[in-house]
Amino acid sequence: MVRRLLPVLTGVLLLLAAPASAQRADFDSEVVARDAEAAFRAFMEAWAYDQHWRMWEMGTEDSQARIGQNEFANRLRLKGIKPAAGKQVEAIEVYPQSARRVEMDVRFTLENPRDSTSESFSGTISAWKEGAAWKFNLGQFLRLVNTW
Q1: What are the distances in angstroms from CA 51 to CA 27, 47, 73, 101, 103?
Q2: Every domain of the chain and the residues it spans
Q3: pLDDT, tens digit, 9 for 90 and up, residues 45-94
Q4: Coil vs helix vs strand at 120
C-alpha cells in the first residue's frame, strides 16, 4: 500500500513545490529597478534642460521609428511645459516585469513658464532594455504629458 502511494505523494509534493520555484525571478529585480529608475531620472533631467534630442535618443527603436526627433522636440516645445527646477522626479516606484521590462509609477512637478504655474503630476510609464540601455516609449510619454 505504501509503495503504491509513494509515487502519488511524490507527485503531489512536486505540484505543491512548483509554484514557489516558478515565482522565483531569474533576474535581480533590485538591480533592474535601480538601473531603470536612473534612466528615467536622466530622461527627466534632459527634459528639464531642454535637451529634447537626448530624450529622443532615450526612446525605444520602435518609438523613434514612429516619431522623428524634430517632431518629438516640437511637440514638447509646443506644449510649453517642463519639469519644475529641482523637482524633476518627486516619487518613483519601479515594478520589474522581467530583466528587460519595467513599469514605473512616477510623480513629478511640471511648470508652465508662460504663466508661472506649476502642478504635481502622476502617471505610469514603461521602459524596455534595448542593448545595455533602458529606453522609453516616446509616444506613451507624449500622451502622458498631454494629459496635463
Answers
A1: 33, 6, 9, 25, 24
A2: 29-146
A3: 999 889 999 999 999 999 999 999 999 999 988 888 888 776 668 889 99
A4: strand
Radius of gyration of the chain (CA): 22
CA distance 13 to 17: 6
Those residues with Cβ within 8 angstroms of residue 119's Cβ, 6 or more apart along the chain or in another chain: 109, 110, 148
- Amino acid code (one letter) for 17: A
- The residues facing 120 across adjacent strands are 109
The CATH architecture assigned to 29-146 reads Roll (3.10)
As a dihedral over the C-alpha atoms of residue 101, residue 106, residue 69, residue 130, rounded to 10 degrees, the angle is -20
